[in-house]
Design goal:
Elements lengths: L1 E9 L3 H8 L5 H4 L3 E6 L4 E8 L2 E12 L4 E6 L5 E11 L2 E10 L1 H8 L4 H28 L1
Antiparallel strand pairs: 1-7, 2-3, 3-4, 4-5, 5-6, 6-7
């Protein structure tokens, strides 16, 4: 398994970032490749993801450690992927979002196509950074309303 960790600072309180992170219908607005998303149970989310030009359906189980502001997720169908989002208060109006993504490089190549080896790691890192930036833009724009 490979692990990628990234973080971004957001100009909103922790509770606003937490709420946005838990609205599955917003996932296509900040997660590249997610075409559609909806809650499919108390702890499940269904995702339609663009996988190398075709749609891949994923069921994701979400477990919260709400007192710690930590959301963990694990695919239950499709490729074996997992991750964690941790929200850390910087001050009353700023939050650090830390993302941890765990994946098997062979599974990523097989499911989504693209490069292998170091080029794949760079592409995944770029994608995660882009998703975090889009999340930041979304939650800050919603907060400004």
């Amino acid at each position: 398994m490979s692990t990628l960790e990234e973080h971004i600072d957001i100009s909103v309180p922790v509770d606003r970032a937490w709420d946005c992170l838990h609205r599955a219908e917003t996932y296509p607005r900040f997660l590249n490749g997610v075409r559609e998303a909806h809650a499919s149970g108390e702890r499940r989310t269904h995702l339609d993801v663009d996988a190398g030009g075709r749609t891949q359906e994923l069921e994701v189980e979400i477990v919260d450690r709400e007192m710690e502001n930590v959301m963990t997720w694990q695919t239950r169908s499709g490729p074996d992927l997992a991750g964690t989002f941790s929200l850390l208060p910087i001050d009353r109006e700023h939050t650090r979002l830390q993302a941890r993504f765990e994946y098997d490089p062979g599974t990523i190549k097989e499911t989504f196509g693209g490069p292998q080896g170091f080029a794949q790691a760079v592409a995944i890192e770029r994608g995660v950074r882009s998703d975090l930036e889009h999340f930041k833009q979304l939650v800050e724009a919603e907060s400004a309303r």
